[in-house]
């Protein structure tokens, strides 16, 4: 959720193309966005209190596909963190199509990410099929 501004921009772009877009609740409730919490304990409390993980899963269940906005973070191009990887796995298990905005990052679980076979957009949202 560090990239909430970019997420809002992508949501608007996809909506303009006629897609129905579900975004994490933290995008509309920035006061409770885990990115703004200062300690691990605060992030854990917010995730539990607002049931963010299950909420993300419910939105994945409703969707035909998911789009991962994997920008550079922590010096890793295309970074995919734990929450996002968990969501990718859930979507994969449900048989949903998975799009990555940028290539699969060189991370410990890159083998699993390749095995999921996401569609790599290389930054081009027009490659998303309607």
Could you walk me through the main structural features you see in this protein, from its secondary elements to its overall organization?
- The chain contains six helices and three strands, in the order ααααβαβαβ.
- It has 130 residues and is mainly alpha-helical.
- Helix 4 packs parallel to helix 5 (82-93).
- The two termini are 25 Å apart.
- It has a three-stranded parallel β-sheet with strand order 1-2-3, with helices on one face.
- Strand 1 (65-68), helix 5 and strand 2 (97-100) form a beta-alpha-beta unit.
- It has one domain (4-127).
- The mean pLDDT is 88.
- 44% of the residues lie in helices and 8% in strands.
Summarize it.
The chain has helices at residues 4-16, 25-28, 40-49, 52-62, 82-93, 110-116; strands at residues 65-68, 97-100, 119-120. It has 130 residues and is mainly α.
Spatial arrangement of strands, main beta sheet: 1-2-3
| Overall spatial form | globular
- Portion of residues in beta strands equals 5-15%
User: What percent of residues adopt helix (DSSP H or I)?
Assistant: 40-55%
Integer tally of domains? 1
Largest sheet, strands/sense/barrel: 3 strands, parallel
Structural class: mainly alpha
Cα end-to-end separation: 25 Å
Tag the structure with descriptive keywords.
6 helices; mainly alpha; three-stranded parallel beta sheet; 3 strands; globular; 44% helix; 130 residues
What is the topological layout?
Elements (H helix, E strand, L loop, with lengths): L3 H13 L8 H4 L11 H10 L2 H11 L2 E4 L13 H12 L3 E4 L9 H7 L2 E2 L10
Parallel strand pairs: 1-2, 2-3
Helix pairs in contact: 4-5
């Amino acid at each position: 959720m560090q990239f909430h501004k970019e997420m809002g921009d992508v949501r608007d772009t996809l909506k303009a193309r006629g897609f129905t877009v579900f975004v994490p609740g933290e995008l509309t409730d920035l006061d409770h966005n885990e990115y703004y919490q200062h300690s691990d304990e605060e992030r854990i409390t917010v995730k539990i209190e607002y049931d963010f993980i299950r909420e993300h899963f419910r939105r994945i269940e409703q969707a035909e596909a998911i789009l991962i906005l994997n920008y550079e973070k922590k010096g890793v191009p295309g970074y995919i963190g734990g929450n996002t990887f968990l969501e990718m796995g859930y979507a994969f298990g449900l048989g949903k199509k998975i799009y990555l905005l940028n290539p699969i990052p060189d991370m410990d679980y890159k083998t699993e990410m390749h095995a999921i076979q996401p569609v790599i957009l290389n930054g081009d949202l027009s490659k998303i099929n309607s």
